[in-house]
User: Fold this.
Amino acid sequence: MASVESPCLSLAIAPLKAAEPDHYAIWVLHAPYPGGYVHHDLRWTQPLTQAWHNWQSMFSLRSLPPVPRFPLTYTPPAFVTPPPDASSPPVLPSQPTTHTGLLMQQLGVGLWQWLFDDSPIQISLERSQGIAIGQGKPLRLRLEVRDPDLISVPWEIMQPQPGKQAVSLSQQLLFSRTTSDVDPLPLLRVEYSLKILLVLGQDEDVDAQDAKAAPQGDKLLKLEQEASMLADLLETAAMGDSGHSFSTPVACQVKTLVQPTPAELIDHLEAGAYNVLFYAGHGAPAPDGGLLFLRPDAAISGTELAQVLTRCQVKLAVFNACWGAQPDHDDDRAIPRSSLAEVLIHHGMPAVLGMRDSIADHEALSFIREFTQALAERSPIDEAVAIARQQLLTLYKFNQPAWTLPVLYMHPEFNGELVRPLTEGVTEIPDNSPSWIARKTPVAFLRSLSTPPRTWPVQGGIMRVGSREGNDLVIQELGVSRRHAEIFYRDSFMTDDGEPAYFLKDFSRYGTLVQMPGNGWYRIHHQEVPLQSKTQLRFGHSPALEFVIDG
Assistant:
C-alpha cells in the first residue's frame, strides 16, 4: 500500500494569452526537490489535434464539443496515420480492433510527448521518480489544466511510448487532476472504517413517456431494489478477496437514500458522519457545478452540494452521473471552473471522482466493486482508482473507452488517505516488526502430511497464505485465492488449556477447510477461528496441511 507521505510532482498547463492562441506554458507547481521547479513553453501541434479529433470520433459516447480555436478548422482523414517512428501502413476503419487500439495509443503517446519529451519538465519528472524509487514509494503526479477548453482531453490515457503503461493505470506513478484555486483543506477526522452514503437519484435512462406511464410506486420499488443491490455490493466488496494488499479489510457501513429531497440529503449528511458519498443518477452540466437530479421535482447544484459536503467532512465524493468531470459550455467555449468535480475541489473537498462521459451499468459496477475493495484495504484514494481502472481495462480491453472514463480530482493539500493505515496506530493483527519478534512468539509452523514432510514456519507471529507471489506461503492450486488467509498469534489470548492462541482468518472467495483434532472437516468463509496444535487445513484443492505449535 502506498504511503501517505509519497513524494508529489504537480504540474499546471496554462494558455499564454500574450502569444498565439495555441501557445501554452507548463509549470511545475510542486516538486520533491528544490531544483525541480521549472517551466516550459510550447505550442499545441497539428498532429495532436488530428489524434484528438480521431479519438473523439471513435470514443466519445456523446457529442462532446471539440477543443476550440485551432482544431475547429480541421477535418479528420479517412484513416489514421501511425506514429512517425512506425513503419507499418495506415490502419483502415475496416479493422476495428487494431484501429481503435491504435487511436487510443496514438493520442496517449502524443499527449505524453507534448507534456514531457525533450523539456525541463521531463527532467523534473525523471528526478522525482528517482527520489520516489529511492524512498521505496510511488510518485504522485498531479495535473492542473487551467485552460477549460482542454479539460475534456483524456489526459488519463497518456503513455510514454507504445507498449508502456498508461499513466493512470500505474501504481508507481499515481495520477490525478488538481487545481490550486481552492479553499484550504480543514483538519480532517481520523477514519478507521468506511461509512458510505449511497444516493440513487432520478434515472437518466428513463424516457419521459415511460416515466409518465409507469406508476410512481413501481418506479420507487425498482430503485429501492437497485439501492439494496448496490449496498450489498459495497459491503461485500469491502470484505472481498481483491489481492491488492495484505492488511485486514476495515469495516464498511452503507446507508441508502432513494430519490431524497435536497433537505433529506443534507439532513442525512449532517447526522451521519459519512466519509464517502456515492451518487448514481441523472446529471447535467451547468455553470455552478452542474445539476444532480435527485428526483423528478428536485435537483441540487454542485455549488449547493459543496457547502454541506465540506461542512460534514466527507472525504470522497463519487458520481456515476454523466458530465461529472466535464465543464459546461457557452456556445463552443468551455466555462472555467464549471464541472461538478472542479467546483467541489474549489470549495475544499479532499477528493472527487466523476465520469468524463456516460458509463455503462456493468462497467460502473465492476469499477465500484474493485474500488471499494481497495479502499477497504486502506489503499489511498488515487491508488485505489488505479487498481479499479486496471480491472476495467482487463474486463473491457485497452481499445475500449471504459477504463478512460473515471476522472479523479484531488485537493493539492490532500494526501489521499481515506482510512488510517495499519502502520499509523491501528493494530488489528500482529506485524513483523522487530518489537513483535522480541516478544518471543511461540514457534509454530505448517507441515505437509506427505513423507518426508515439508515445513513452513510462521515467522514473527504471522503467515499469509495465497496464490499470489509475495505471500509467506504461496499455493498455486485451483480454488486458492490470491489473498486467501492469514495465520497469526495474539499474545493477549490463551486457550482454556493454556496453549498459546493462534488464529486463522479467511479472506478467500470459496473458504478454507478446517479439521480440529478429534472433529470432522468444516468450512470457514470470511471468519476468524482459533487454531489448536495438530489442526489440519485445506486451502482450495491443495493437499491438507497440519498446523503445529512447537512444544
Q: What stands out?
A: The longest helix spans residues 216-239.
